[in-house]
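Exam revision sheet. Question 4 asks you to relate a sequence to its structure. Input first:
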Amino acid sequence: MEYQKSVLDERRADDRTDSVYTRAHARPRRSAPKATLLSFVWPGAGQWYLGQRVAAFIYALPPLLVVGALLALTRDGLESLAGRLFDPPVALTILVGLILLGLWRLLSMADAWSLGRRRERAFALGAGASDKGRAGASDKDRSGRGRLAAVVALAVIVVVVHAVPAALAFKFYEAGSAIFQPDGGVAALPTAEPAPTSSPVPGSTPGPAASPDPAVPSPPRTPIPTIPPDVTDDGLVNVLFVGTDSLPRRPADHRLADSITLASFDPAKGSIDMVSLPRNVSRFPQYWGGFYEGKINTLISSAQADPGSYPDGPMDTFVEQISYLVGVDIDYYATVDIPGFQRLVDAVGGIDVEVTEPIADPAFPLYLDVGRRHLDGATAMMYVRSRKGPGGSNERRSYRQQQVLLELRRKLSDPQMLPRLPEVLDAMASTVRTNLPAGRLGETLRLAQQASDAEISQVFLGPETYARELPGSETDLEYAVELRMEAVAAYSLELWGDASYYSDWAYYEELTIPSRAGSH
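Answer key, structure tokens:
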């Protein structure tokens, strides 16, 4: 009896082994590393390879949605995508999405490895019914560590592939949060509308321009119903670029507008007109009434030192004043900090400029011969600030500033800047401030791309055509000039036509008749 029972048990064990072997070989043999590799290529592909159709669909769907979202972001071109990346909410969403997608890929790979290993063990168990099968299992054990190392290497690649763009997305988030600020003090332009309180005193002026004194208030601002007048909007895009001098030698509350350039882009004509104002313009009519007797480059610091008299804020006051003088609506502004400008030029690998006249300025010192020259950040900063030496002047410096702006635009739109992108983003975050909504940057970049071959004109509203030098008998300021408002108005009308405020006769009279200018 015991012998028969033993034989029966052996037969049952053989039946179980045969059953396992049959189940293991009922489906094609599948490799766990191969399944993991397929899920590395695309989440869910390994599950599909192992016959897990539902799991494959679940793993594959989120990446498909992510790809669809990216295609939607690029539907208007790469410029649109670059612009959207500067929008902090978009950059943060992409950052989180990259991290979650990376974790999802790792989860899919781990699941494919686990399913594949279970399939291999089942196959090996069935194959173990024969000596040949056991010998094969022994060979697999010897290669197990190598296969696991390969899977770990794939996981590391996934981490790196997602960490690098995630870090770049974080750079965009930081840069966008710093650059696009609705209210950032001296370096940014508040977007709030003026909140006037009382009427100005006709003809009154702000405190001393060279050293703003909060104890000597400027006249409170009041709304001017006729300004700006109702003029034609013909699609012009006007951006004011202001270079602010915040070098360590200057107090924090005494930043000067070192360069003032208005870039006007006409999409219909495909042209760019760059208009620069001398930084030493003085005795000009204020848009809220009266005259400003200091130099225009001190207006920012005056408004910063006396916020009670300049409720619009430093940059808002400055931008509105430039708009008032040149007679055109300014859509956006961008400030570039002079010390940060040097870092930005270095970040893009330097710039190439055409020196049309030799420069020999012993003040820096700066010496450049005529011809094509490559400038690093330090040299470029001297190049845009030099105004002394033979042939040196504010006008020549103004043209060089416009030239450098155009060259920077060209470098920043060059695809070869991609490897330098993190460094460029860091430099921009510490240097540039703008009131341009981050969501409209893509549109602006497309306009800039359209303007890559645009006809460019450069004008300096300085002596003698558009301004006159003020003699010492008329002012205590050194090297001050006064705008010839009739000439400025004529140029504004010639350039912008019906879009110019000067096309309104009341506005024209307001600024061009000396007895009336600044008297409202």
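Marking note for examiners. The first helix runs from residue 2 to 26.
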